[in-house]
Specification:
The complex is a heterotrimer of chains A (530), B (298) and C (308). Chain A is an alpha+beta fold. In chain A, 28% of the residues lie in helices and 23% in strands. Chain A has 16 helices and 24 strands. Chain A has helices at 2-16, 73-79, 131-142, 151-154, 179-183, 191-194, 251-259, 272-280, 312-319, 324-332, 361-367, 385-400, 412-420, 440-443, 460-470, 475-492; strands at 33-36, 53-58, 88-90, 97-99, 102-109, 112-117, 157-164, 167-172, 214-220, 224-229, 242-247, 265-266, 288-292, 296-302, 336-337, 374-381, 403-410, 426-432, 495-501, 503-507, 511-512, 516-517, 520-521, 527-528. In chain A, the strands form seven sheets. Chain A has a six-stranded mixed β-sheet with strand order 15-19-14-18-16-17. The longest helix of chain A is centred in the C-terminal third of the chain and has 18 residues, at 475-492. Chain B has 298 residues and is an all-alpha fold. A three-stranded antiparallel β-sheet of chain C has the order 2-1-3, with no helix packed on it. The two termini of chain C are 22 Å apart. The chains are: A alpha+beta (530), B mainly alpha (298), C mainly alpha (308).
Chain lengths: 530, 298, 308
């Protein structure tokens, strides 16, 4: 009826009106407080209170909860050092290695690492934790067929010995510079629950058992995963009594749930505009927006197998056509950091003196003048807004310089298979780094067939540096080599490093001590005031 | 349903599974490589492919053999395990099915529940208001479901409450449906109202509305119900778009996720289930039609 | 809707689809630069002419919407995701492109996909439908094929096609939509053809031994054309909606192709600003309305149905 239609018009008009409330006269800072985190977020103020609950928004549901075989980030964020624990602990700000399940770690000689485990630690089901669990887990992690992330870092281990229940001895066949870091990121699995079973289908992978400050309570597929404080924890107990990870795909919907009080933390706000509107929204007074930079970079990969892209000069010229400032403004609202190489900026591995390639369309066009009819295709992931924005921007800028860039969008599975087959010209990806990043898989020529070296980059000098890095255990020496590699990569330009996007996390006012990072959340030290 | 048509349906079902199977064989992308993420290496991919049953050859013989193995299992309702989380496909389908069924039935309810009265009202209305209503209906029908869904979502549909979300999503789905049904019903009613016995009823002093309700409706309802056989299957198969926009975890969302993750067992199970639902919908429609009017032959 | 209005709007839509460059472009309809006269440079896009030449031109007749649908750089950073202004009548999208220009150029995608896919579907539907009607053994198989086709999801088909051809292109989206719609048309053709076969003159033709092809072309085809054109009209509406839905999911035409569904997708990502939500909604609605009205007009009185 006409009446129904009128109702629709009214509804639509209401919807079309912006929902941001008018800022009060007191100024724009009456809403949420924006805190810029540097290397790490500032410490919480006040005394911790026990009890309370926390509800976190999870935008994707993991397949299973077993870090070794599930490569989805959420599996790690829910399990690692919350339910299950690692042997060692790596400080996210300084990279210093400290104890966790391993009370001490000593290199008894160049080729042996002795880990002394803590006493009287128990699994959540009461069974005693022992070195057998460590040996079991490390055995799996080293097995290439399992496909653990850290397999390459553990490859130098030739034997794992367990002389007694609290001692684990790792015998190394060659230098292992990334071993301690790897041991800080492998959750130890309960051998008694996994022995003889397939990791992917064992029931424990859907109900993980660990030694950590939280124990697993339930997983309602499609809805939530719930953890509860483990009162028998060997260390200082957590403050929060219950943590719920709620699965909501749409970030805007999650924001509405937050406004209704059903969620307490939004790890990633959808857009910078949303963050700005929250800062101006008086209803959000007392809440905090943590602005931090994950250890990740956004990059353009050139397929060096293509004759047009084989020469570094061409890649450098094309790199000068990437207006990084504009892309950062469009795709991330300006909330991104520049980056010039495959290491975490601010760490000793990163050479600060290297300047990014400036956006210079005139010089680039001149440099490319010798090449006629350069036609390239950009392979973008369907559904990635930023990839598409970069693609259209490059298409226009390349066009002005005389390079024709066509765009193809394919879904991620197809993208991956085409990258592996080197069936592309240009693509854009994101890579999350470790604090000590081993770039062998990325840039060594041998990794072109099945590593992450999608561009089939091959440079003998770079290969030599990468091999040397892997053989250098002394941190200062290795960091110097890292900086050398940074410069070499910058010269050769297998990638055009674009930027390091920032993330904004919204935390409710009554939650304290909550810190996000690429490795997960500081749930054990967070607390909630009533 | 006669034995012959049952056999025909079975043949179609087999055809659907064969077509789905072949399409999956041709689809690019490796589920094992995808699943392994950063830990992917040659040995791991090979091991996982063997574990998932993907390492057979690609010649016609192996493909046929793989299909027949799958068929054998699925006859016992064993659709295998999902590549994504290792759970039985049966279970994942069972979790998603109620949402889609509910969405479909609610949409059908709104479609007919609102469409039939609408048709009646239009049949009784005067010319001018009918023309106005016709314009409004055309405009409402032309509004893209996607836009409507987005608008309703943003206008503050309560998301946390799954039931209310379902109702709103069903309303969204039902919109084009009740316009179609309303129009269909109006046309059928006008025919019925012009018939001889309607004229007789009018002559005995009944009002237009009484004529409509007591006599015309019963006869005019039949063509509208016949629409069931064509509309219900589509509704039951679920609307992928509406599910995605409203964040409902039904078969449509399961399907999209499975395609993106190349979760072949789930996709095969989904294809089969979808076909079964389509047939169930058609069958249900036919039963309803026959119940309403026994004169209609099977 | 008045018949005249209907036809005017339909022709307007077609014209827009054929030459959107005459309505929205960064190059003008005619201009004189450095003594050279350019006629319709927005269509021909001569290499010697650049939008910045406007300042040097002695005569410059711009298009009604003086923006290109894909130019980002000509709009400064302040104009990203900006609401309607005097410079950009419908505002700009998430990277500064003019929405009005994209809306106009989107007509091309909508109609090419809408009409193109239905024509392909009609061809397939005719072949299969008539073939099924003419021969009993073929009918047994083809009916099953039609039913299988009716149960196939669009999305899945498109994803696989995407992989086989290596991209999503406009042609592929059109083909995929055609492949999901042909079974409906085939079923319609088959029903109408079988009805036609019962007609006396067709029986007579068969009696004197006319070949199946002759019967199909001269006797069955005329019978099926009317319902087919009705179904086509409704089908175009359906196809346009399908294309916008696919673009909304990110599986439509590849960037930077302007598409109404892509505008909706941007609207969704940006929190549904009015200038990104309403123009494509109204545009899609208008085309769907036109197609549906056309279908109703083509339908002989008293027949209901023949839609998909």
């Amino acid at each position: 009826m006409a009446g129904m239609f009128r109702v629709l018009v009214v509804v639509a008009a209401l919807a079309a009106c912006k929902r941001t409330p008018a800022p009060t006269d007191a100024g724009p800072l009456t809403g949420a407080t924006r805190v810029q985190c540097g290397a790490s977020c500032p410490d919480a103020v006040g005394t911790a209170v026990d009890g309370g609950e926390l509800s976190i928004h999870a935008d994707a549901e993991p397949g299973i909860l077993c870090d070794l075989v599930e490569h989805d980030a959420w599996s790690r964020w829910i399990v690692e050092n919350q339910v299950q624990e690692t042997l060692l602990f790596q400080d996210p700000a300084t990279g210093a290695i400290g104890p966790r399940l391993a009370a001490s770690h000593v290199f008894s000689d160049d080729k042996t690492l002795v880990l002394t485990l803590r006493n009287r630690v128990h699994w959540h089901d009461g069974t005693a934790f022992s070195s057998a669990d460590v040996a079991f887990t490390l055995g799996l992690a080293r097995d290439p067929k399992i496909g653990a992330d850290q397999a390459a870092d553990l490859a130098p281990i030739v034997a794992v010995e367990t002389p007694d229940a609290v001692t684990v001895r790792l015998r190394l066949g060659r230098p292992a510079p990334y071993l301690l870091q790897a041991l800080s990121h492998i959750s130890i699995l309960p051998a008694h629950l996994y022995r003889g079973r397939d990791l992917r289908t064992a029931p424990t992978s859907r109900a993980p058992v660990g030694t950590g400050p939280f124990r697993f309570v339930e997983w309602l597929p499609g809805q939530r995963i719930v953890l509860a404080r483990h009162d028998g924890y060997w260390g200082p107990p957590a403050h929060l009594a219950k943590v719920t990870f709620r699965f909501v795909r749409d970030k805007q919907v999650a924001l509405t749930l937050y406004e209704r009080g059903e969620l307490d933390v939004l790890p990633r706000l959808p857009t910078p505009r949303v963050a700005d509107s929250l800062v101006a929204d008086p209803r959000r007074h007392g809440d905090t927006i943590l602005a931090w930079t994950p250890r990740a970079y956004y990059y353009v990969v050139w397929n060096t197998q293509r004759p047009a892209l084989a020469k570094p000069e061409v890649r450098r010229a094309l790199g000068a056509l990437i207006d990084r400032a504009r892309f950062m403004a469009v795709a991330f609202g300006g909330r991104a950091q520049p980056i010039t190489g495959p290491y975490v900026p601010g760490t000793p591995s990163y050479d600060r003196s290297i300047a990014a390639i400036a956006y210079d369309p005139v010089a680039a066009k001149a440099a490319l003048a010798g090449i006629h009819d350069l036609k390239l295709t950009f392979l973008a992931t369907a559904g990635s807004r930023s990839a598409e924005q970069l693609a259209t921007q490059l298409q226009e800028d390349f066009g002005r310089a005389g390079v024709q860039l066509d765009i193809q969008t394919v879904d991620f599975a197809t993208l991956l298979s085409r990258l592996r087959k080197h069936d592309f010209d240009v693509s854009a990806l994101q890579w999350t780094m470790s604090l000590e990043q081993d770039n062998y898989n990325m840039f060594h020529s041998s990794e072109a067939d099945h590593g992450q070296n999608y561009g089939a980059f091959s440079d003998p000098a770079v290969d030599r540096t990468l091999v040397q890095i892997r053989a250098t255990t002394d941190d200062n020496a290795r960091h110097a080599l890292d900086r050398t590699l940074h410069r070499q990569i910058h010269e050769a330009q297998p990638y055009a490093f674009v930027c390091s996007p920032e993330a904004e996390t919204l935390v409710r006012g009554r939650i304290h001590g909550f810190r996000p990072s690429v490795d997960g959340f500081s749930l054990a030290s967070a607390w909630s005031t009533p | 349903m006669t034995a012959r048509s049952a056999l025909a349906r079975l043949a179609t079902l087999i055809g659907i599974t064969v077509a789905t199977f072949l399409l999956l064989e041709l689809a690019p992308g490796d589920p094992a490589d995808l699943r392994l993420g950063r830990g992917s290496n040659v040995a791991a991919v090979a091991a996982l492919r063997t574990e998932l049953g993907l390492d057979g050859g690609h010649d016609a013989g192996s493909v046929a053999q793989r299909y027949l193995t799958w068929l054998g299992h699925s006859l016992r309702f064993d659709f295998g395990r999902s590549f994504v989380d290792g759970r039985a496909v049966r279970q994942r389908l069972a979790e998603a099915l109620p949402t889609t069924l509910l969405l479909g039935f609610l949409a059908a309810l709104f479609g007919w529940g609102l469409g039939v009265p609408l048709g009646c009202a239009l049949a009784l209305a005067r010319d001018r208001s009918r023309r106005l209503a016709d314009v409004a209906l055309s405009l409402a029908y032309a509004l893209p479901t996607a836009s409507l869904a987005l608008i309703l979502l943003r206008a503050g549909a309560p998301y946390g409450d799954r039931n209310v979300t379902l109702v709103v999503a069903a309303l969204c789905l039902a919109m084009p449906l009740w316009v179609r049904i309303g129009r269909h019903q109006t046309a059928a009613l006008k025919t019925a109202l012009a018939s001889d016995w309607a004229r007789t009823a009018r002559a005995t002093g009944a009002s237009e509305a009484q004529v409509l309700v007591r006599h015309a409706l019963r006869h005019a309802l039949l063509p509208t119900v016949t629409l069931l056989t064509s509309e219900l299957p589509a509704l039951l198969s679920g609307s992928v778009l509406v599910e995605q926009i409203f964040g409902l975890r039904g078969l449509g969302t399961l399907g999209i996720d499975a395609v993106l993750a190349r979760d072949y067992p789930v996709l095969l199970g989904l294809g089969t289930l979808g076909a079964v639902l389509t047939f169930a919908g058609t069958g249900l429609g036919e039963v309803l039609v026959r119940w309403l009017d026994p004169r209609v032959a099977a | 809707m008045k018949r005249a209005l209907l036809w005017i709007l339909a022709i307007l839509a077609l014209a827009l689809a054929l030459c959107p460059e005459l309505v929205a472009s960064d190059l003008p309809l005619a201009c004189r630069v450095d003594g050279n006269l350019y006629l319709f440079p927005s269509l021909t896009r001569p290499a010697t002419l650049d939008p910045s030449d406007r300042t040097r031109a002695t005569f410059w007749l711009g298009t009604p919407i003086p923006h290109s649908p894909t130019a980002q750089r000509s709009n400064g950073m302040t104009e990203v995701l900006s609401p309607p202004t005097s410079r950009h009548l419908l505002g700009t999208d998430d990277r500064g492109r003019d929405v009005a220009a994209r809306l106009v150029h989107g007509t091309r995608v909508a109609l090419v996909v809408g009409i193109g896919s239905m024509l392909v579907a009609a061809l397939l539907g005719l072949l299969v439908g008539l073939g099924a009607a003419l021969s009993r053994p073929a009918d047994a198989i083809l009916s099953r094929v039609i039913e299988v086709g009716l149960s196939f999801p669009t999305l899945f088909l498109l994803l696989v096609l995407q992989g086989l051809r290596g991209s999503t292109s406009l042609a592929e989206v059109t083909l995929a939509i055609a492949l999901t719609q042909w079974p409906h048309l085939a079923r319609l053709c088959r029903t109408e053809a079988r009805r036609a076969l019962a007609a006396p003159h067709v029986e007579a033709a068969r009696a004197i031994g006319a070949s199946p092809l002759r019967i199909a072309v001269f006797h069955l085809l005329p019978f099926t054309l009317s319902p087919l054109s009705v179904a086509l009209a409704f089908g175009v509406a359906q196809a346009v909606l399908l294309e916008s839905g696919l673009s909304l999911l990110g599986l439509g035409a590849p960037p930077p192709t302007p598409s109404w569904g892509e505008l909706l997708q941007q609207a969704q990502a940006a929190g549904l600003p009015a200038w990104l939500l309403w123009p494509p909604t109204l545009a899609i609605g208008l085309v769907v309305l036109l197609a549906n009205q056309l279908g109703r007009r083509l339908r002989p009185k008293g027949v209901s149905g023949w839609s998909l």
